[in-house]
Amino acid sequence: MKKWQYYILSNSSKVLSASTTKESTRYNSFSLAIHTGDNIEKILENRDYFKNSFNKSLKFVTLKQVHSDKIINIDKYEIINGWVELPIEADGMVTTKRNIVLNILTADCLAIIAIDKRKNIIGAAHAGWRGTKLEISKKLIVNMQKLGAKIEDIKCAISPGICLNCYEVGQEVVDEFKDYPKSIKKKSNGKYLFDNRLVNIEQLISIGINKENIEIANFCTYCDNDKFFSYRKGDIKGRFVTYIGMQDVI
What we know:
Layout: E1 3-5, E2 15-20, H1 40-51, E3 59-64, E4 71-73, E5 83-89, E6 92-95, E7 100-106, E8 110-116, E9 121-127, H2 129-133, H3 136-146, E10 154-158, E11 168-169, H4 171-176, E12 184-186, E13 192-194, H5 196-206, E14 214-216, E15 240-246
Parallel strand pairs: 3-5, 3-7, 4-6, 10-14
Antiparallel strand pairs: 1-2, 2-15, 6-9, 7-15, 8-9, 8-10, 11-13, 12-13
């Protein structure tokens, strides 16, 4: 199974963080989403293959992502084993528990993952343009702080997503991001392009995250569609996962 590692987060044997790709040595299309109408048996096989590449004590969690700004404290839920798909409409998770792996599914949107290694607190969020407008990146950090995370100790990573030059949007998106003029580029045909990644970086910095503590996966899901799923490129059903977890080191 091929992955893109986040070294700013995973420079410890107890921290797990990466994005999967659509490539796999076992399956032709390594999608991990069960909500897109894809073959459920195939997706469950992919999930089992994914889980089995880790320590068996790890528990994997996903949510029903709906482009909101809702962040869930996973500590309030009993996560038994395997892969748990919580029937909760939300787009972010935080936890202080070891051996819990938070997973965000995307195919053009961004995943934001974060950690305070001193306090053993992790978080993950899904940021399409709607979630970005609702400042979900900032709200993820706030929810980590509520659990005791310190802003100076939080490190973040931003997953592959569709880039400025490929993300054509309408006037409704332009109107929502007037406070971020550098994120909008007008095309010669009168339409617009949007830099979702830039806005999330600015939001993280505005809340106090040091720029040096933000790692960016500079892949475009549309341009690099051989590696990552892109909804706009035609991957209607495929989703890759960006994950973060802290495991007990034996």
